[in-house]
Request: fold
Amino acid sequence: MYFEGIEKNQTRLWIINSLLELLGRKEYHDITINMIVDHASLGRRTFYRYFNTKDDAMKYITELLMDQFADTVIRNNSHGTKEVAIAYFQFWEQYIDILLLLKKAHLLYFIEDNLTELVIQVAKKVKHIPANLPLEKLGKHYEKHNYEFSIKLAGFWKATILWCEENPRKTPEEMAKLITELFS
Reply:
């Protein structure tokens, strides 16, 4: 089970774990909703109570991952770049199987396409930015730093992909030191 103890709704847990388990054996485009619910021993209508499409289930998985990352930042009381980087790589170390699975299945775009919004949600949850600040106001507020943020975020993500392929992987502390040096 990939999200045991994290997802509170048992039925949704069965659905997303079923999808991830099937991804280990099949191509994403070959996986049907019937396969997901059969593997989870659920009915098709049950799937539609939680998700409209298989893509919605994948988006939910990425949101759940980012929520767990936010919890790691909070738990570690991470504030500076180095502390957040350590928490970030500790988090991905814990979920390396999912990261590698998404990479192998060419599904990282579920994270990449929404990376800015996902990171903003994390920043709101960990109170690095005000939770009630609307996204459109956030863009205006940080407009002068928009390119810098985008470049750093993209670099951080690409470093994550390189890191996950390493054998042996650098420790979270080693990655944090590298990231801190690059961003200073």
